[in-house]
Amino acid sequence: MSRCYTQITLADRRRLHQMIATKAPVNEMARLLGRHRSTIYREIRRNTFHDRDLPDYDGYYGTLANDLAKERRSRLRKLRRHASLPEEIISQLKARWSPEQIAGRLLSDGVSLIRVCKETIYRFIYGKENYSLGLYEYLPEARRKRRPLRSRKPRDGAFPATHRISQRPEIIGDKSQFGHWEGDLLIFERPLGHANVTSLVERKSRYVVLIKNPSRHSRPIMDKIIRSFSPLPAFARRSFTFDRGTEFAGFRAFEDGIGASSWFCDPSAPWQKGTVENTNKRIRRFLSGGTDLATVSQSDLLNLTRYLNHQPRKCLGYRTPAEVFMAHLQEDR
């Protein structure tokens, strides 16, 4: 097999069509065509004809496969032929538009004479020529590598069994030890943007910390928690309990950053972190779901936490969370 890669030709595709018709093994097809078997698998997957209205004609046809490949390549070349088009796409990506929104806008009447689909934009973002621009950072999930279509990973993989709440030490569950926190994300109405607030509550003192986030990307959220809790002594940040939201999937970097353990509730069991759920109800009196966080600064959130932390609580013998929290900090030093 040649070490120099060349594009599959029309003649190759016609031979491939004949071999598929005879049900030849993929390894044999690859050997006869002088290609790697992965190339053959990819060719068949990408250029097989599918039509919902004509299911009886589904299959791989040499000439049609060649036309499909040419059409795909011509779509990508649009971004090279029209210099203004990549600039417009990059500008909209930086404005936090998704590829689907950009493609839909380009299809709208009077917006642009050039049309591309969202798949072309994704390839533009993740292609070798433009990858160094880091455009993936502006996507909703900001993945460095593109996830294959229709391959959403189950959350159990992100939150291993060793970190389930059932494995959490009993001393955390009975609230007898200081320094164990619960965390959640306060979400607001979608039309108002992607901004949200991380709410964190120390289980024993009910002390509240609120952090504003521009998006639901896990790593930036975890980085902000790390920066906020790093000044505290280790005994004041022993562990954190979260739900299984993808925003907390980056917990390993979080554990490395401040050395705290992480625990995760069972699916659809928010009551397992009841302290923060109860606190969220208090917070919602001031930050309803319709709040536009563009008008709320981190300083405003700090003022809100001061208000909440200086309210007497019956569960604390009518002491305030701030008083209990500071008392534990001084006692355990």
UniProtKB/TrEMBL annotation:
PROSITE patterns: INTEGRASE. Residues 165-329 form the Integrase catalytic domain. SUPFAM superfamilies: Ribonuclease H-like. GO terms for cellular component: cytosol. Keywords: DNA recombination. GO terms for biological process: DNA integration; DNA recombination; transposition. GO terms for molecular function: nucleic acid binding; transposase activity. InterPro entries: Integrase_cat-core, IS30-like_HTH, RNaseH-like_sf, RNaseH_sf, Transposase-Integrase, Transposase_IS30-like. NCBIfam families: transpos_IS30. This is Transposase. It comes from Pseudorhizobium pelagicum. The lineage of its organism: Bacteria, Pseudomonadati, Pseudomonadota, Alphaproteobacteria, Hyphomicrobiales.
